[in-house]
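Sample A.
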Amino acid sequence: MKNQYQRFRLKYQLLLIVIIVFLVPTLFFSIVLLNNYAQSQMEQSIKSAQSALEKSAAQVEQNAQACVLTTQSFLNNQGLTAALQKFVLEENTNALELLDFKLTEVTANDRLINNNPYLYQARIYMDSDRITEIMPLLYNRRRMQRQPWYQKERSLMEGWHFNYSDRLFDSESWNNEQHLASLVSCCYSFDGMYLGILEVSTRMDLLFPTLFQNDKETWNGFLTTDGRLYYNTGDVPWEPETTSILSQLDANRAEPQHSIQKTEKGTYILCYYPLSGLPGGLVTASRLDEKMQGIKTTQNLLVTGIVLLGICFCLFISKLIDMVLKRFYRVVSAIESIQSENLSVEIPETGNDEIGILASSIRRMTERIQVLVSESVQRERLIKDSEIRALQNQINTHFIYNVLESIKMMAEIDEKYDISDAVTSLGKLLRYSMKWSSPLVTVGDELEYIRNYISLMRLRYDYSIFLTIEIPKELLDQHIPKMSLQPIIENAIYHGIEGLPEDATIKIQGYRCQVDNEDAFRIEITDSGRGMTTEQLTALQDRIDGRSPDNPSSSHGIGLKNVQDRITLFFGASYRLQVAAEKDRYTQVSITVPFCEN
């Protein structure tokens, strides 16, 4: 990490410190703030859903109270109880008694039902089939047995029953009401004698108004203590999974509940509110997708704003750093000119601080280099006619290796290890180039040559060229044409990297593939240089493939075409060279050759 940091220019090192010290904490606190905002919006949505559910529960309890009060009025009616007891005890009831019952109790029942819009019917079922029915109040046992809530045991019938159809009459022409809810009670005389069953019913949509008010954002239901869920099964835009509701809510708990559920259909706020007058409570599920999308949009806008402000802040700090390092960059510019072999550059006076001392040292070094160069030129002029001609006539490979070895030893004696390493790389490079015993070499030998070549090329530039090799071991012993990678590397340096004001990277990657259903492997060489436009890439690929005439005025692409021709010559037309590039991003050259099992 430290070495990577030191590779940056001083300006970017200082800028990175500013980013770490100021921008990272700012971004952290912004994320915390956005999370708090999202959490507060979620809590507000939960409170809104709970408040709406509480209001609905109050209305339901008020509607249920109408059935409870009606039941109590019937059970406490002394005249009605006495008449019912007389019907039970006396098998034969005269017409005058029946007429009196109809004029008093039935008329009172009709008045009660008509004056209370929340009631559907109030009926009494006698536990006998011989009782004379007086509609719409008094019915016999056969009528009671048709109702869905009927059970042989009285205790099982008592209580609330929900969402059933009125089956009092079998005739299809009779418009029996659907979706009823009723409170069923046993009728007893004041001395404890069982008289019959009292049914006070209402419609589900009157008892639970919200069950029929579903929309695309809200779903409502009624959950009983025994785990039954009632809801509108008609035109419902959407329904959450009932199993998810039942697994998350407990209708036996006497306090409100809420949770957030995520399903394949979306994200919901699930709320439960218990009802004191009914065996269960109301449930509601509110869709959060739209609200969450709004929260996410707000977060994205805020993050975008923070990022833009951070970029502006970095640019401002960069300008300040440029002003502070202006004198330093003057010295750096002079050093770059010297590296470009311009020894006549004038190094400005920059003061007596550390930068001034550096400038003075570089100025003295430049003057010394100029003297050495002048002496070297004079020496070269003296030996030009003799030594160079002798070398041209007598040079051979062994002589070159011996001379390079001597230079290496001299450099090591003078502790010039950089020169020694460079001479070693040059010797290996020359030895590989002059040894041409076979037109094919292994990938490992070719990569070793590339390493030496890159090592020498680094001496020419004031920036670093990093070489990354990712080749599987199984490919190192495979054969490729000799000197097939070097032209690609050279092309990457001269046409892609040279002239860039920063360090560059060349990556060599290899992997196995298939060509015409045969085993092959591919080597990709990618540089982080200036890349090419689409038009330049097309023109270069056409020249490599021989689809365009050679341009004598341009040497770009000649080396790549030679590599292409040699690959095709050795392995056939199916194996070739391909180029991919993106302007100001990268250039990638790949070659594909057959894979041979060892």
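Sample B, a different protein:
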Amino acid sequence: MKRTTVSERALILAPRGRDAAIAVAMLREAGLEAEPCASLPAILAELDRGAAFIIVTEEAILGADLQPLARWLADQEEWSDMPFILLTTRGGGLERNPTAARHLEVLGNVTFLERPFHPTTLVSLARSALRARRRQYDARARLAALHDSETRFRTLFDTMDEGFCVIEFLDSSKGPLTDYIHVQANPAYERHTGIPFVVGQKVQEMVPDEADAWVEFYRKVLLTGEPIRFSRELEATGRHLDLAAFRVEPPERREVAVIFQDVTERKRAEIALRELNESLERRVAAAVSERENALAQLHEAQKLETIGQLTGGVAHDFNNLLTPITGALDLLGRRYADDPRSARLLDGALQSAERAKTLVQRLLGFARRQALETRPVDLAALIGDMRDLITSSIGPAIELVIDAPAGLPAALADPNQLELAILNLCVNARDAMPNGGTLTLALDQADGFVRLSVIDTGIGMDAATLARAVEPFYSTKELGKGTGLGLSMVHGLAAQLGGTFDLQSTPGHGTRADLALPVADAAADATDRRAVTATDESFRALSILLVDDEELVRAGTAEMLRDMGHRVTQASGGGEALARLADDATFDIVVTDYMMPRMDGAALAAHVRERHPALPVLVVTGYAGGDLDIGLPQLAKPFRQADLRAALAQLARQPATT
């Protein structure tokens, strides 16, 4: 008989009578190498030398300490899954042998064989286990070869003189691919581009002024599969690069590999040689003029967007600051409702907090980042509902005229934000008519839009004032008379709704503000949108895991939840939250902030969904972008206890999703 290596032998643990000797004889007669073992420690010692599979009787492991064996199995290399053949006396199935479940849990890759059995059956199972083990050895060899290949690739990758990177386009289900991230870059990347630490960075964040051009080059490579060679200046560092790019297969990976060299010195020499043939003075003058014009145009084009980004960030911070303030005032208001003086003071404080919230909404309105709840709106009915409010706001010295013809279609808008915009326009018109006048609100339809015109007979604006009227914080009013955000908020709201906002004014002849909103596909709901249906938001007390990196926000939210009768466990970040979930799997809901370091709320929710598919997650956000496109229930900051209660009740009623 040809002797096999120890890695293909069977280890046998059968302490009763001559079972081990008989099993060894059966296997050796079939041409298989077998080694009897007297105990589990002996099995472990032999396993370290090598084995193909293990045959063990049920009585050999009943009542034995299996932890050392379990540790050995858990520490197997990734290619290894040691096969077991377990000889039982009551059948191998879980329904016939309840203790088999414990054996299966410990041994893992186990085949049950009920005694008595025919020798042919044992030999057949043994050969099957040996074949499975040989496949594992083949996998080990392939892994070793792959490791060697990766080592050679990494050596080439790290030592090659050319810059090299692999980029991955970010998935965009709503339109064309507009951004990519660097997933690999060799050390020469920084040497050739002058940009360090690019792995993990998005191109739109690295070089925002020129990102679209780079995206366009590589998007064509990804979509067509055709490699390209081109030269281009990396404007962020002033480097001229010769580049080649090709798609990494398969296309579903959305990856493009790029290899390049810094040819700045060569390019500069070419430019210098060309400029020798031209008039230096004319070239310098033209370059200076062109640069000044370009900078002026760029400044005008980017000014509003830049300020919009700034205000959006400031709004996010304000929302975080307002959340614990509003929550604490809300709780104190309920506690001291029977004390008239305290209730009055707390109500005043809450009103101030609501005014601050409105200011944040105006900032977001300018930045076009507030969350809108659009639906078909009957503008004539909305203005009719606002008549008393507008009349009291403009005062008795101004005549209000409403021109709303019948039959106008509904407009697509957020009625709450639209009311705020209309009131802003009316208040601006009032301030422009200090001696009284006429304020006209007129509706008409043209080219798929419903247009609302707010027309006053006031002092009007000159061309310079009109040009700056929608800039944030620009105001012609006295200090303390306005924030300078009214018109900018209306302008941002119109753009966000897909409409337009236009101002026309002449000094001494009043101002006309036209707000055009797209026509809705459906009719407006005839029910009173202000009617609030009383709903029973009561539900059982919940065990809630609250996650927020801002301690004040987290503490305030926890108090509101406890005041509702819920049990609250707090975590300051995603990592701590996952640890608490591992320790306690009885939570009913996870309430998490979105903007957190290292792991944001969406990433945390993904981990929770993977480990606890039925556990619902509520994302709380002061993010300036409004509703986040993350497919999760959300609650915007700042919120009051009633808002939090409603969000939890809604989430508790929804079926769990995976």
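Observation for Sample B: The radius of gyration is 36 Å.
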